[in-house]
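Lab manual, section 2.4: Encoding a predicted structure.

Procedure: take the sequence of the chain (506 residues), apply the prediction step described in section 2.3, and record the output as structure tokens. A sample record is shown.
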Amino acid sequence: MQKNLRFATLSLPTILHTFRKIWYNEGIKSKGECHKMTVVWIVLGVLAVIVLWAMFAYNGLVQQKNWVQEAWAQIDVQLQRRNDLVPNLVETVKGYAKHEQETLTQVIAMRNQIANMGSDVSPQEKMEASNQLSGALKTIFALAESYPDLKANDSFLNLQEELTNTENKISYARQLYNSSVARYNISIQSIPTNIIAGFGGFTKEEMLETPVEARKVPERKTLVVIVLYMALFVAVGIGIGYYALRSVVAGVIIALVAGGLYSMIMIANATNVVMQLNHAKEITDKNQAPMIWNIVTDMAMIAKVPMPRIFIIEDDSPNAFATGSSPEKAAVAVTTGLLERLNREELEGVIAHEFGHIRNYDVRLQTIAIALGAVIAMLVQFGSRMMFWGGGSRDRDDDDNGGGANAIFMVIGLIAMILGPFMSTILQLALSRNREYLADASAVEFTRNPYGLISALQKISEAPPMTEADKKSAALYISNPFGEEGDSLFSTHPSTANRIKRLENM
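Recorded output:
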């Protein structure tokens, strides 16, 4: 009680009087006055901290708000560019497809609707109109298939390419806008910055809904690859069952169980296994590699994923990869050549690319693909030995009793036993190429700068092959560690030229 009463005596005049003494270096002799001075300093310090924090918080919200506006401006620029191209496209098509006037009229009407929208229209409303126009343009491009002369027209082909590039830019700009809005909304809704947001008049922004078709394209491609993997496992199981075990069902069950168990084991130990194969050594202290440590730390906050483990590979060739079973158990590896040859901007682009793989769960998909490929090779080897050593030879009576079904199983099994490992490799490479483009787009989203990654890819593509890389994990690297490849079924990555072209269009 006495302490409370003593503190209560610290009225505003008392505080001001004590502060005046401090300001003019007047002596403070009594013990009570010393106590009062200490309290004053504490109060002033707390007030100063609060004021500084409020200033930084407000400026941060202003910056994020401007990022949202900047991201929308990028979308608006691309919408305007598309609007400028549409009349030329319609005029070109008119000369060849005279029976499609209704469709062309609708396209012009949609284009004019977007052009006449004022600044009071919400981004969501404008994008809904934009999505309708995108669908109508796809209809025109589909109609061109019925008009060979139009399809061969140079002007039409050039306009088609420009409009396609513009649509891609709109899509990437939409991703950037949504990412900026998400960060801004989190800031204004989180404690204690929501207090500053309330006083400053910062309100929640609405994210742009991605068209269903655009949203499903990457997922659909990945799903197709996984389904084909399962079909391949069934085919290999049929081969083992028919030629080695005298039971197709038993062979399929063994193949699926072996694939599932090995995949789970690989997922559980993915990071350690892959790092050992590539002779990577973990760093556990910032002082071991300050720049890469800081970049990884910053990128983890931007991508909103846990801080991954960091590994260094002693190799003069610049390269990097990410692995792990999930974002919580992910790891990033970089070569010494990457740290020596790339500047900070380029390193940020590379690390952002790897964080794209982590956030999109590509690391898990690639780990599963590697595991499934290894299991298929093992099963095919087992089945082949059993078949040629006679361990599971089939009786002719069994073949006769099976009729047409046995004939089908025989063909499927033989093809799977011969081509199983080859098809597995093709699927793994297809999955890798598909996810590389997505990771490049994520890198631009994180860094807001495609040119750092572009420059990094150019340097990596010009470097000599790695000496420490493992062939089984080549698809994990940002670029093929054994040399540049062209786009083909046997490529681990898309060509650097095509990746750079897409990045330049973002």
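Check your result against the sample. Residues 2-54 form one domain.
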